[in-house]
Automatic annotation (TrEMBL):
InterPro entries: WD40/YVTN_repeat-like_dom_sf (IPR015943). Keywords: Membrane, Transmembrane, Transmembrane helix. It comes from Nonomuraea purpurea. Residues 62-88 are annotated as: Disordered. It comes from the Bacteria. This is WD40 repeat domain-containing protein. The chain crosses the membrane at residues 35-54. SUPFAM superfamilies: DPP6 N-terminal domain-like.
Amino acid sequence: MTRLLRDTLHEWADESVVPHDLADRALRRRAWKPAGAAALVVGLVAAIAVFVTGQNEPPDPVRPAIELPVRPAPAPTDVRTDTENSPPTKLIAAGRMAVSAFYTHSLEPLPENRELFRRTWSLYDPRTGGYERTSWAWVDVAPGLQVAAVLEGDLIGRRLGILDMNTRQILSWIELEHPAASVAWSPDGTKILATTYSSRPDVVQRDRAEQPSPRTGYYIVDARTGEAEHHELAPLPDGITGEPISNGNSRQDLGWSLDGTMLWAPTNTRPDRVFYSLDGRRRDAPADQRYVGYSPLSAVSPNGRLLLGPDGLPTEITDVQTGQIAGRQRVLQLHAWADDDNVIALGCAGKCDDEFTNGLVLVSVDGKRMTQLAANRNTRTGDWRAVLTPR
């Protein structure tokens, strides 16, 4: 049976209401009209045979488009904090960005000296203004915080769902022939990038520094129609043989360029990413796009004038045109621009004597103003990782 026929029959099954006495009706009709019933059965069998063998095959059915919730306009810009709970229970946001989701993690021992890195996801819930723990294998929230892409499965799955954040209902399920282990929304919120793997990429060998990756490629999914196209893309080499561009991690998730016209893959070398066309061909890095290290977010301020610097204590922000330092901040990392004058960053407690005791802060470019956004935590004992999304 062709995949098209199987999908069509599944759709009929989902949409139809079968009378409880359907079988009895058929038998009764057969009792008083045997010839007509026989002709009907023969005709039906012949029609199915013609369909399966591809003769007179009808055009592909058109999947109905779903209506995505409208992104708020204008987007909120207020500051929201939760400095009492770690992980947070109330929305954290500042300016144009919000913590749309976060995950905690644990390590599970496996046979043969292996271990599994397991993420447990919590997702922003507009109904409560807080976060809801989920069982999804991976989540990513679209710009606007109205819909999320979720993967069903045990760290890897073959079903991708589009979740309405406000109603908590799945708007559409997309079946994947190749299992995926991560999803990422395009910058305009119309497409989903799903990186595919042959096995769970979070299983690692504990006595091996470089891990071979089981990445097989990626899907680009149209969020409105559910159309999904898979492209093969082998992982980067693990670096053992000394390649100039490599990645020794088994998880090698792909991301979108800032304008959504290209894809990138992370590296363990410099530069920290390599770029591809949407159909998987290597491309030069776009000259006008600068990123926060190993992040999908722009390092350039919304007005295009300032550039976030690398990790450090203190960190630095420079002028894009001159390269001169515009300000220093007593924080560990600069994560994302809240607006043209303030940055969401990873700050440290007290006098920064212990870099492992830290929390999200909002800091001004000159470093003189700082607002605590999240409670400080000791990342050696109770870590959680935030996902920042445009509001």
